[in-house]
């Protein structure tokens, strides 16, 4: 495992939406841990990062929240992707793929076709 990485603005939102799309209903702590797991431990998220992002997505209508009980019998807020969130995920995923493809052009080895 290397050093902790910072993420570009907007990527946390995309990772949260993608996590909820693939795993369904989850509480905030679970979302954060899943993102860390998928990153192979290169990202370490804290409450001060994840919960404001979840709140913003909820206010935008991209996710909904409901109170429930966690596996360790504690009250927890569970999040679910909405149809608005699915559209947002699709749009932002497309934009990130396009940006990554464009950037990749500038990192090709000399002699490769551009």
Task: Please supply descriptive tags for the structure shown above.
114 residues, alpha+beta, Arc Repressor Mutant, subunit A, three-stranded antiparallel beta sheet, 4 helices, globular
Write the layout of secondary structure elements.
Layout: H1 11-23, E1 26-27, H2 28-38, H3 47-60, E2 63-69, E3 75-81, H4 83-105
The helix/strand series, from N terminus to C terminus, equals HEHHEEH
Q: Please indicate the count of domains.
A: 1
The shape, in one word, is globular
Number of strands: 3
Folded structure, characterized:
By secondary structure, the chain is α+β, with helices and mostly antiparallel strands. The protein has a single domain (11-105), classed as Orthogonal Bundle (Arc Repressor Mutant, subunit A). The chain has four helices and three strands, in the order H-E-H-H-E-E-H. It has helices spanning 11-23, 28-38, 47-60, 83-105; strands at 26-27, 63-69, 75-81. Strand 2 and strand 3 form a beta hairpin. The termini are far apart. The model has no long low-confidence stretch (mean pLDDT 89).
Task: Summarize it.
By secondary structure, the chain is α+β, with helices and mostly antiparallel strands.
């Amino acid at each position: 495992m290397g050093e902790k990485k910072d993420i570009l603005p907007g990527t946390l939102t995309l990772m949260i939406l993608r996590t909820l799309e693939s795993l369904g209903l989850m509480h905030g702590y679970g979302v954060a841990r899943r993102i860390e797991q998928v990153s192979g431990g290169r990202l370490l998220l804290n409450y001060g990062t994840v919960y404001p992002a979840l709140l913003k997505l909820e206010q935008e209508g991209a996710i909904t929240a409901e109170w429930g009980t966690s596996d360790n019998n504690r009250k927890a807020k569970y999040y679910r992707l909405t149809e608005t969130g699915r559209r947002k995920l699709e749009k932002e995923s497309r934009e990130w793929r396009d940006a990554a493809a464009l950037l990749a052009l500038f990192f090709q080895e000399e002699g490769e076709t551009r």
